[in-house]
Design brief:
Blueprint lengths: L1 E7 L4 H10 L6 E7 L6 E5 L2 E5 L2 E10 L4 H12 L7 E7 L17
Antiparallel strand pairs: 1-5, 1-6, 2-5, 3-4
């Protein structure tokens, strides 16, 4: 099993979430986060003064899937999460040793 962790633009998360659900991937965790990458931040103006926002608001989507589903999930996230501009995000693939469903104690692939 793998945990697919994607950092995405806030404006794209509903599109990605719905595309994943349409493909049968409904269990996920979504968190509001802040971060920066190559983009480094943006310059904004407020009341005539410029300032740099170097930690931009993003959304982190986490989903645990079978090894055989990783490529499909990554493709869905990339196709639906991109705008073509800097700051579209990153995807991390992390090995998962075990999963246990609290309610039933089902394990591993039966629990995802």
């Amino acid at each position: 099993m793998k945990k697919v962790e994607a950092i995405l633009r806030q404006g794209r998360i509903d599109i990605v979430k719905n595309a994943l659900a349409d493909a049968g991937y409904v269990g996920m965790t979504i968190s509001d986060v802040k971060g920066r990458g190559i983009q480094g931040g943006i310059t904004e103006r407020y009341r005539g003064r410029e300032y740099v926002v170097d930690m931009l608001p993003k959304v982190k989507l986490e989903i645990v899937v079978k090894d055989s589903d990783v490529e499909e999930v990554v493709n869905i996230i990339c196709e639906n999460g991109k705008t073509g501009n800097y700051g579209d995000g990153k995807i991390f693939i992390i090995p998962v040793e075990s999963v246990i469903r609290v309610r039933t104690r089902e394990k591993d692939e039966d629990a995802i």
